[in-house]
Design goal:
about 400 residues, Purple Acid Phosphatase, chain A, domain 2, 2 domains, six-stranded mixed β-sheet
Length: about 400
């Protein structure tokens, strides 16, 4: 068929030049006729020698990619914790996590909740009830490779606008980190923070339902993300079509209860209806279950990661993890959450004295000399975290 069309085109070219020949023979005589014949022959040969190809169909992408995510709870820095980290006139929290590094090294994305404001030492450090923490706390988490941080908590306003601005100045210097929930301006707040790993784009939003009765600076709501249905809906809609994975950190619920409240469940349902992929809960300071609402993974409460609180239930935290998989078929992409898992972490406190005695341990490294009866605690808190679900893998 292609060859036939090509021959017809050649014939047309020759016919056109023959007409020109006829006209030229009348007007100019033999010389022009000779030139016209040669020109017609050259054009015909060029057309004959052209390579003709059938049009190619557009090839659409087909591939799979994945990233691994781990989530831990509150960095709740009581006086005892930062006293313990005091060294040479400064603070170093890295020793707290020496037993944890190998656990975190295997994950691509690492989330934690910065419960207490990192206002820094010049502002004056303080513990409960109005916290202000050394910025070296953040340094230790950065050294572990954490790249997702929630800043919206009931203690965010403890040191007012100055504390918030100091915190933002610190987080603004960190590269390849999404610190969400507190912003320098309305424009900054409304600018999506999207990052990419292994071909998968992701973002984090963060909100708190609580302020401990403190007031957000007038006309500066962007400094603190106080939750509302309308606010989160607008934020999620702004991201639709721009990002593969939307994570929302929620500071919600009731302290020291292992059962999610009605409001936690209501908000989780609403976020799932908006298309949020992962909901990460904090504030109760104890472990609450991992659940799925359709395709949305909900961790109701991770509990404390590191704190100086009293009580074994407040010293055992949850490390929840999941593999985020992206499948592209004929150019259409789909996100699935695979291998949801639960691990536990224990904060060992010193016995009434300080000097780098606090230490965090994954349960895989515990024994009865570190935490007597640790296996019984493992079974009890794993039952809470998995809520009897066989879908949640218990690690180790």
């Amino acid at each position: 068929m292609v060859k036939h069309k090509r021959k017809l085109k050649v014939i047309r070219i020759v016919a056109i030049f023959m007409m020109l020949l006829a006209i030229a023979s009348i007007v100019s005589g033999g010389t022009f006729i000779t030139l016209a014949i040669n020109k017609a022959r050259e054009e015909a040969e060029k057309e004959e020698n052209k390579v003709f190809e059938e049009p190619k169909e557009e090839v659409k992408e087909n591939y799979e990619s994945s990233v691994s995510l781990v989530m831990v709870g509150d960095a709740l820095i009581h006086q005892g914790v930062y006293y313990d980290a005091s060294i040479n006139g400064g603070y170093d929290f890295n020793y707290l996590f020496t037993e944890m590094k190998s656990v975190f090294d295997k994950y691509d994305l690492k989330y934690y909740n910065q419960e207490t404001i990192l206002g820094g030492t010049p502002l004056g450090l303080s513990g409960y009830p109005m916290f202000n923490s050394p910025q070296e706390v953040g340094d230790a988490f950065m050294n572990l490779g954490f790249n997702l941080v929630s800043l919206a908590t009931n203690h965010s306003l403890d040191k007012g606008e100055t504390g918030l601005r100091n915190s933002l100045a610190y987080w603004g210097k960190q590269e390849n980190v999404i610190a969400a929930g507190s912003y320098e301006s309305e424009e900054n707040r409304n600018t999506p923070r999207i990052m990419e790993k292994n071909g998968i784009t992701y973002t984090l939003l963060s909100y708190s339902t609580l302020t401990n009765g403190l007031t957000i600076p007038y006309g500066k709501d962007y400094l603190f993300n106080l939750y509302s249905d309308s606010k989160v809906k607008a934020d999620v809609e702004r991201l639709k079509g721009k990002v593969d994975v939307i994570m929302v950190a929620m500071h919600w619920g009731e302290e020291y209860t292992h059962v999610p409240t009605y409001e936690e469940k209501r908000i989780a349902q609403y976020l799932a209806s908006l298309g949020v992929n992962i909901v990460i809960g904090t504030h109760p300071h104890v472990i609450q279950p991992i659940d799925f609402i359709g395709d949305t993974m909900v961790v109701y409460s991770l509990g404390n990661f590191v704190s100086g609180q009293v009580g074994i239930e407040r010293l055992i935290g949850l490390m929840a993890s999941v593999t985020i998989k992206k499948t592209v078929t004929d150019g259409e992409s789909k996100i699935t959450l695979e291998k949801p898992s639960a691990e536990l972490v224990y904060t060992k406190k010193p016995n009434g004295y300080y000097g780098q005695q606090y230490k965090l341990y994954p349960f895989s490294k515990l024994n009865d000399s570190i935490l007597p009866g640790y296996q019984s605690y493992y079974n009890y808190y794993m039952d809470i975290a998995t809520n009897g679900s066989r879908e949640i893998i218990r690690l180790p």
